[in-house]
Amino acid sequence: MSLNKLPQVDKILNLECFKTAIKPILANIVRDELEKQRELLKQGKDMLEFDKLTQLILQKYENFINKGLKRLINATGVVMHTNLARSVIDEQILSRAKDVITSYSNLEYNLNSGQRGNRYDYIGSLLSSLFGFEDALVVNNNASAVFLILNTFAKGGETIVSRGELVEIGGSFRVPDVMSASGSILKEVGTTNKTHLYDYENAINESTKMLLKVHRSNFDIVGFTRSVDISEISKLAKDRNLIEYYDLGSGYVGELNYNLGKDEPSIAKFSKVSLVSFSGDKLFGSVQAGIILGKRELIVKLRKNALLRMLRVDKVTLAILSESVKAYLNKEFELITTIKHINKELSSLENLANLINQNLKTPLEIVKTNTFVGGGSLPNKTYPSIALKVAGEAILNESIYRAEGIIGRIENEAFLLDLRSILDKDVKELIEKINKIESAK
Ligand SMILES: *Cc1c(COP(=O)(O)O)cnc(C)c1O
């Protein structure tokens, strides 16, 4: 047994292949692996050859690096993919926000008075003007919005919700759980498929604080169904002196192509509702945030809840969100990447397919397909798309492309690169990588 056969840690750290590695992370991996080799030697066994050992360490280091945030090419066709970071921020939006993020700013300083200012005033005005509500507030995400609203207005009392709307959204957001954490008591009404206005009426008692409607973001109940429109709920709440709140989940501004819009609520339609909330990074197409819109007196109470301090958004979020809202107000819709891609005409995707093929050594088959919007909106509603079909074994192709940072989709046992979710800036790299992968086959 000779332990002095073990290589020095530094010898491995200084190898050319680790030139740009994060050294303390790499050093930990190297020490772990050397320890295992030391054990082998102690047991009288052979240790790995040096090249094999460095290969193993390189593999472990790459596995670690792959867990960090990395740019990917989304060729799934799902524009707002929950696992692929939902909405993409346009570079123009980011560059407009950049100066404020990289400098000191008036985040909590009123330049007109020279006094302490409020971080929510400006974004609140922008948002209420975009959507036609009296006032607005922004929190960390829509889950926080639901929590803050219930905690502020329904803590210790009952909140009435339709059984058909007790949703669970991916990533463990469950309406009943958020409700109990907020301190409000859930009062379910109706049945899974049908809820009537009289179900809400009959459930109201002296402990009732709020009528909640939740958008069914990621599933659909079809067949023999009935749910109560928010306008009816609003009217009932007004008559009984209660607050009504609509958790929209997603929601968009303006129009969507392909008749998608009729199934997903356009936010401005609800400006008479006491409170609504939705995610900043779903169809709205901006950063992670929970956007709350509603009556001024209610927004004022939300701002006074001490819990807001725990849910507050950073300047990075506020700066980017403000630029997205301004882009909407100025009708620069092409800067909202999510909306731009959902609305792309099929002909422009066909042109893109042809352009990519013209640059490929071996063109791929162009196929018509259908995709989903994703991100917990428009459940079960497909709309048309165009994809490039990669010849060969689908599961194998999926993993080869994934290793190059291209995430595609398997459909009918074929691996597809769906062009609906390909960004303009992805095109060049996509061409290079397809050429590289396919010529290596
Ligand atoms: C997505 C969603 C949420 C959670 O929103 P986050 O911004 O992800 O926290 C809450 N309610 C509904 C109906 C949703 O669709």
UniProtKB/TrEMBL annotation:
The keyword tRNA-binding does not apply. Its cofactor is pyridoxal 5'-phosphate. GO terms for biological process: conversion of seryl-tRNAsec to selenocys-tRNAsec; selenocysteine incorporation. GO terms for molecular function: L-seryl-tRNA(Sec) selenium transferase activity. The keyword tRNA processing does not apply. GO terms for cellular component: cytoplasm. It comes from the Bacteria. Its main location: cytoplasm. Its EC number is 2.9.1.1. The modification N6-(pyridoxal phosphate)lysine is found at K282. It is found in: Cytoplasm. Pathway: Aminoacyl-tRNA biosynthesis; selenocysteinyl-tRNA(Sec) biosynthesis; selenocysteinyl-tRNA(Sec) from L-seryl-tRNA(Sec) (bacterial route): step 1/1. It catalyses: L-seryl-tRNA(Sec) + selenophosphate + H(+) = L-selenocysteinyl-tRNA(Sec) + phosphate. Pfam families: SelA. Keywords: Cytoplasm, Protein biosynthesis, Pyridoxal phosphate, Selenium, Transferase. NCBIfam families: selA. HAMAP family: SelA (MF_00423). Converts seryl-tRNA(Sec) to selenocysteinyl-tRNA(Sec) required for selenoprotein biosynthesis. Belongs to the SelA family. This is L-seryl-tRNA(Sec) selenium transferase.
